[in-house]
Amino acid sequence: MLLLDIRNLTIELETNHGLVRAVDRVNLNLREGEIRGLVGESGSGKSLIAKAIVNVLNQRWRITADRFHWFGQDLLQLSFDQQRKIIGRDIAMIYQEPSKCLDPTALIAEQLQESIPNDVIKGSWWGRESRKKKKAIALLHKVGIKDHVAVLSSYPYQLSEGVCQKVMIAMAIAKNPKLLIADEPTTALESSTQAQLFRLITSLNQLKGMSVLLISNELDSIARYTHNLSVLYCGQLVESGKTSQVLAQPYHPYTDALIKSVPEFQPDLPAKSMLYALPGSIPTLQHLPVGCRLGPRCPNARKECVHTPSLQSKQQHFYSCHFPLQRKGS
Amino acid sequence: MSCLLEVTALCKTYRKQHGLFRQETIKALENISFQLHAGKTLAIVGETGSGKSTLAKVLVGIEQPDQGEIRLAGKVVTMTNYRKYNHVIRYLFQDAERALNPSQKIGDMLTDVLRFSTVLDNLQRQQKVLESLQQVGLMDEHIDFYPHMFSAGQQQRIALARALILDPKLLILDEALTVLDPTLRAQIVNLLLELQQQKGLAYLLISKNLRLVRHISDHCIVMQHGQVVESGPTEQLLTQPQHAHTRKLMGMS
Ligand SMILES: Nc1ncnc2c1ncn2[C@@H]1O[C@H](COP(=O)(O)OP(=O)(O)O)[C@@H](O)[C@H]1O
Ligand SMILES: Nc1ncnc2c1ncn2[C@@H]1O[C@H](COP(=O)(O)OP(=O)(O)O)[C@@H](O)[C@H]1O
Ligand code: SF4
Ligand SMILES: [Mg+2]
Ligand SMILES: [Mg+2]
Fold first, then answer.
1. Interface membership of A202 toward B (CB under 8 Å)
2. Which SMART domains does the record associate with it (chain A) (predicted)?
3. Which of B22, B38, B176, B215 meets the CB 3.0–4.6 Å disulfide criterion with B92?
4. Pairing mode, if any, of strands B202-206 and B170-174?
5. By percentage, how much of chain B surpasses pLDDT 90?
6. Does the CB of B179 have a partner CB in chain A at under 8 Å?
7. Domain identity same for B37 and B136
8. Long-range contacts for B136-141 (Cβ within 8 Å, ≥24 apart)?
9. Could you tell me the pLDDT band of residue B182, with boundaries at 50, 70 and 90?
């Protein structure tokens, strides 16, 4: 069953120069138990989409969509408070910098217990606090923290980034969310801790059937841990499909460039040789090119590209490009 | 090939005061020795707190070593003659934005670097500034821009221009590539590789991205608790890691 079904999500910002469209008609689906990767240059709108899903964007942003279904229920038809309630119950999010999201003045024990909703704790209110304490310890164990005594009685600054990130995950899964959104959760961490975290997220996915939207630019992790993949460029969805398929045979020149620019995906590339790199950089929202937003940087751009390409598909593999790349060897 | 940098038995201890009586000493560097040749790249990997940044800071003279010797092109570097060398080794941080003065135009910032460290006249300075902007793929008109008018990637280019403007022989990259977007990182990596080929620039690359280390570096040092636990040619070290800590860093255990 489709957990999340978003059609033509558009996110605009009111500025002095009028509305700028940061996210432009993006589709996003997530099935129950699915891990979907979301990749794209920074500034391409990944965090905005995540924040739109959990409804934390402020009044300056205008969010519209043709469809915004959660478990078959149209969230757009609900009042703001009802949306909040459903999202707060079912969706959890972890951010890139745990040290900024944890309260520096409160002990981990307090913060973690506070994140456990009352209805997760069974039984009457009597003795609830001690059961919460037990639950907090169990949560830490679940995310791979063995020394719960020391961690619970620490302030965030006394812990390493890796441990803080695990605490964030513990807080996020305290309410047994159906969907976990992880916004570049490992960028600040070293590779061994990164691997641990990804293993943790995968095991939660497998044991609890928790769906995950994994925002990351680390393509090797994306390849290893996600089932499906959406690629954004400059606020537009340029490609999506099965991760293995998209990475093996990208149709869109941006996806292709992304894959070629990472040495680990070019096993035959000799050390110290030039990497494939698109010229230029991602345009700012104030200076978006007309038509295909990759146009000015695209090696295959032609006249037709001044018209925005529409989303097309070949066997559940979606792409928006007038001149999709050809299959290797054909 | 000439040995550009030779470090012998470098030690550095930090003292942290806890309250009145308790003092903690942290051995950030213990007996570090290595050599780096012109035109080569040496990578330093290790978990957070293993002393990588301390080593970089000692090499550029921000921190003073307790013991040990640093030789640049055969000559011993001491604190008193450090100024003489500070254009030979340049340092690029992870966080370009914080390293740039927000209230100074790019052109002025670059000119200042030249004014402090070279004997060039006004016209020569101007020329050099434009040259170094070009080198990193920026344009002449950017001299009138303030740092906040650039994207993160462009800011990293500006930081690179500032590092390169004194024609250094060695550039220290302390996680400077880690936070960049993949396609942008590819651009900067290519630029660095080109400079190395053309000008024989040497790099000391501090990075937790082992794939990048593998692609760019010739030699690699693995650090743990301020000590070198393993070192060798990168390819060999990463295909046949000997030390348990190296394997752990590679996520193999
Ligand atoms: N608070 C904000 N004010 C103005 N522009 C913003 C704000 N937050 C994000 N943006 C812009 O929206 C675009 C998408 O940002 P974001 O979703 O954070 O990108 P990503 O997460 O992919 O790096 C960027 O161009 C960014 O500059
Ligand atoms: N200015 C300082 N004062 C006291 N301790 C420091 C200082 N700078 C670094 N340290 C300590 O020295 C050790 C090495 O730090 P650092 O060189 O920054 O490691 P890395 O760059 O590998 O993460 C750490 O234990 C760190 O806490
Ligand atoms: S539509 Fe044109 S410009 Fe856009 S990605 Fe395809 S070929 Fe390139
Ligand atoms: Mg983001
Ligand atoms: Mg460091």
1. no
2. AAA
3. B176
4. parallel
5. 52
6. yes
7. no
8. B136/B160, B136/B161, B136/B164, B136/B191, B137/B187, B137/B191
9. confident
- Identify whether the C-beta of residue B170 lies closer than 8 Å to the C-beta of residue A62: no
B48 C-beta closer than 6 A to ligand 2? yes
Give me the domain span that covers residue B140.
100-167
Least confident of A88-92, B17-21, B87-91, B102-106: B17-21
Q: Which domains does chain A have, with CATH numbers?
A: 2-226 (3.40.50.300), 227-330 (no CATH)
Q: What is the pLDDT of residues B113-156, one digit of tens each?
A: 898 888 889 999 999 999 999 888 788 888 999 988 777 667 88
- d(CA B62, CA B178) in angstroms, rounded, equals 22
Which tens digit of pLDDT belongs to each residue from A184-206? 887 767 677 778 888 889 998 99
Rounded mean pLDDT, A96-101: 74
Min Cα–Cα distance to chain A from B129, Å: 21
Paired tokens of B43: 């990578």
Is there a domain that residue B93 lies in?
A: no
Number of CB atoms found within 10 A of residue A216's CB? 23
In a domain, B8, yes or no: yes
Q: Considering its fold, how many domains does chain B have in total?
A: 2
Is residue A61 predicted with pLDDT exceeding 90?
yes
B151 and B253 in a common domain: no
CA count, 13 A, side-chain hemisphere, B48: 12
Walk across the sheet containing A35-39 and list its strands.
A91-94, A179-183, A211-215, A35-39, A228-233, A236-242, A317-319, A312-314
Q: What residues pair up with A29 in beta bridges, in sequence order?
A: A5
Question: How many angstroms separate the alpha carbon of residue B8 from the centre of ligand 2?
Answer: 20
Q: How far is B195 from chain A (nearest CA, A)?
A: 12
| Whole-number average pLDDT of chain B | 88
Q: Is the CB of B103 under 6 A from ligand 2?
A: no
Contacts of A257 in chain B (CB under 8 A): 183
B82 shares a domain with B177:
yes
CATH number at residue B180: 3.40.50.300
Sequence-distant (≥ 6) Cβ neighbours of residue A246 within 8 angstroms: A229, A231, A239, A240, A255, A317
In the structure, ligand 4 is a single-atom ion and the residues with CB under 5 Å from it are: A 47
Domain shared by B151 and B180, yes or no: no
Q: Of the candidates B108, B137, B167, which is a domain's last residue?
A: B167
Supply the ipTM of this predicted assembly. 0.84
Radius of gyration of chain A (CA): 21
Compute, in angstroms, the gap from residue B53 CA to the centroid of ligand 5.
4
Instruction: Check whether residue B2 and residue B69 sit in a common domain.
Output: yes
| B95 is a domain residue | no
Same domain, B116 and B199: no
Together in a domain, B129 and B59: no
Domain end among B133, B167, B201: B167
Nearest-angstrom CA–CA distance, B113 and B167: 12
